[in-house]
Amino acid sequence: MKLYRSLVYRELKLTRKRFLIMLVLFLLTGLLLLMPFLIGAADDPANADEDAFSVLFLCSATLAATGGVLAGTNNGILKADIASGWKRYAWVLPAKPVQSAVADVLVKLLWAGVFGLLSAGFAALCLHLTGCNVLLHTINGFLLVTAATLVIDVVYTAIVSLAKSGKELTKFILIATGGTFALFVILSRVFDKMAGTTTIGQTVDGGDLLTEAQQERLMQMIDFLGSGTMTLIAAGILAAVCAVYFLVLRNAYERREA
């Protein structure tokens, strides 16, 4: 247990500045998104107008997506370990690959928990101010975005871990960046097809971006996003991605002769 605590402490020590900056940016984003509701609550303490749910959902989804990306993004530790030679030195330390991978996953989940709680707190505060409940929408959206970002991190980590020294690092970083960008484009197109939206900038008759059928389908997706079933699905997806992330990290920490 002491070894796990030491490994987790190392991860937190090396990533604290990075995530503190992300935390400040996240809080500033949340404050900017919250300002209209604070002003509206001051002007009219009663319930907001009929468009409040749409506006609140958009703001909550934006903040949840921001938190999910920040929580799931690569922390740069593996790249730094390879560049500094620490990865090769760590082979002679008592920590096993499984233990190092567990510590990485725990720290990732810790920061995900922080951003997730803050996102849920934003939705809860907006519920108090406006009476519109998008709490489950926010939580489920956060889980899905975190999982999607973590999938990109898995691909990036798997490719970067192939580098055995700092000399090879630049080449594999370029390959990993290209691979993750391609994956991002694929995930974006999959979501676009699921939502049934039109191409950006393309309009239908009447100047609307969505047809009536597409609008109805989008509303059904929003309703399902706020359901308990979606919570179970999103949590299951995130758990599965975390398991794959652990396997990739364990493989990355295994010793390879240069």
Brief rundown of the structure:
This protein has 258 residues and is mainly α. The protein has 9 helices and no strands. The protein has one domain.
Describe the overall structure.
- By secondary structure, the protein is an all-alpha fold.
- The protein has one domain (2-196, 206-253).
- The protein is built from nine helices and no strands.
- It has helices at residues 2-43, 52-72, 77-84, 86-89, 97-130, 135-160, 166-195, 212-225, 228-253.
- The longest helix is centred in the first third of the chain and has 42 residues, at 2-43.
Question: Any chance you could write out the topology, listing elements then pairs?
Answer:
Layout: H1 2-43, H2 52-72, H3 77-84, H4 86-89, H5 97-130, H6 135-160, H7 166-195, H8 212-225, H9 228-253
N-to-C order of helices and strands = HHHHHHHHH
- Rg calculated over all Cα atoms: 21 Å
| Structure annotation, total helices | 9
End-to-end separation in angstroms reads 31 Å
